[in-house]
Amino acid sequence: MTAAASPLEYQVRLSDHARTPAERDAILAGDLGFGRYFTDHMVAIQWDQARGWHDAQVRAYGPLSLDPAAAVLHYGQEIFEGIKAYRHADGSIWTFRPDANGERLQRSAARLALPQLPVAAFTESLRQLVAVDHAWVPSAPESSLYFRPFMIATEAFLGVRPAQAAGYYVIASPAGAYFAKGVAPVSIWLSEDYARAAKGGTGAAKCGGNYAASLLPQQEAYAQGCSQVLFLDPVEGRYLEELGGMNVFLVRRDGRIVTPELSGSILEGITRASILQLARDRGLVVEERKVSIDEWKEGVASGEISEVFACGTAAVVTPIGALKGRGFAVGDIDAPAGEVTMAIRKELTDIQYGRIPDRHGWLVRLR
Fold first, then answer.
1. Rounded to an integer, what distance in angstroms lies between the CA atom of residue 203 and that of residue 357?
2. Is 189:229 a contact under the CB 8 Å cutoff?
3. Which residues are CB-contacts of 69 (< 8 A; sequence separation ≥ 6)?
4. Among 105, 200, 228, 303, which is most buried by a count of CB atoms within 10 Å?
5. 229-270 pLDDT per residue, tens
6. How far is CA 192 from the centre of its chain?
7. Residue 242 and residue 184: Cα distance in Å, rounded?
8. From the DSSP assignment, how many helices (H) and strands (E) are in the chain?
9. What integer pLDDT is reported at residue 324 of this predicted model?
């Protein structure tokens, strides 16, 4: 279900209830948090089998109208992405590796039997929204505009088959610095009763069902005083997969960086791939392989593993101070973030905000 190659023509319908500049500035000057406020407009593009992608719009942010029989409500045909826009010192607005996000959206669409949006159309949807809502891109240090592109099956039909109509949308939310008081290590809870995804399942797709399945064990993590939950492989229950919404890395004492290999049930993170490249650029040995939970526990206890961190679009890089589980705890939540962790985080964010050259051509200008 691929789309036609011809570019989409957008209709721009400005909101008649947009916030005033004073109201917008007050929001941007306050505590933005993450996913709490939304810009005045959104992108909407429709798809059906007969016409392909059509009716591209930038319109007022607001509720969607769905038939109660829409397939997304019954069979979970839904995918999404997460990507940011960054305001550089000269006022220009850029995004980071949209081609990689667009390609991942296509892979997710293929797995969920949804139509594939062309990568160029994905990037253009971000550009169209920024053209109207550029004033919502914050300029405070480490702030950004977070885009949430998503696709849902909209056909009103209760038969169990791929929907023949779908909608693609982009909403945007100004986001403050993830660590308001500076980057701080977090504690992680090991889930032993639940798996994030099954072999042959949808683990490699970015779909809502994977995240819904992580919420109960995430509650368990909160109850144990931890910020995130760690999942193991669904077959043996021995090897690291990922956190509820982030990939994980171990830094060994000899400088090697180790991360779980992509298994089909691990999401192929854009930040993960970028970190692997930056680590290789530094001459570090990078290993993508199976990593057992015992390697983490024993390595931290012996000092063989000197740092652990997680990564994802929202927080970029998050140091992990402690790992807890039933009957054990390793690491120290009060220990400072590791040197390798912070060096990679700084380099990546410096590229994103235009503070150092982008030697890999990852940045794409939106405005």
1. 34
2. yes
3. 156, 157, 158
4. 105
5. 999 999 999 999 999 889 999 999 999 999 999 988 899 999
6. 24
7. 20
8. 8, 18
9. 97
Residue 186 is encoded by which pair of tokens? 């977090």
Half-sphere exposure of 291 (CA within 13 A, CB side): 29
Q: Which residues contact 346 (CB under 8 A, 6 or more apart)?
A: none
Specify the residue for token string 């652990």: 308
Q: Inter-axis angle of helices 98-111 and 270-281, to 10 degrees?
A: 130
CA distance linking residue 270 with residue 247, whole number of Å: 10
- The bridge status of strand 305-312 relative to strand 316-325 is antiparallel
Helix, strand, or coil here: 282?
coil
pLDDT tens per residue across span 219-236: 999 999 999 999 999 999
Residue at 99: amino acid letter? D
If one counts every other C-beta atom within 10 angstroms of the C-beta of residue 201, the result is 17
Q: Which secondary structure element, helix H or strand E, spans residue 186, and what is its range?
A: strand 186-190
Number of Cα atoms under 13 Å in the Cβ half of residue 223: 10
What one-letter code names the amino acid at 32? L
Mapped onto helix, strand or coil, the DSSP state of residue 183 is coil
Cβ contact 201:265 at 8 Å: yes
Q: Could you tell me which residues come within 8 angstroms of residue 355 by beta carbon, excluding any fewer than 6 positions away?
A: 89, 349
Q: CA nearest 111: which of 221, 260, 237, 1?
A: 1
DSSP 82: -
Three-class SS of residue 244?
Answer: coil
Structure tokens at 162: 């791929």
The pTM assigned to this predicted structure is 0.95
Question: Integer distance in angstroms from the first to the last C-alpha of the chain?
Answer: 31
Beta carbons of 104 and 270 less than 8 angstroms apart: yes
237 conformational bin, left if phi > 0, alpha if psi -120 to 50, beta if neither: left
Spatial contact of 102 and 127, defined as CB atoms under 8 Å apart: no
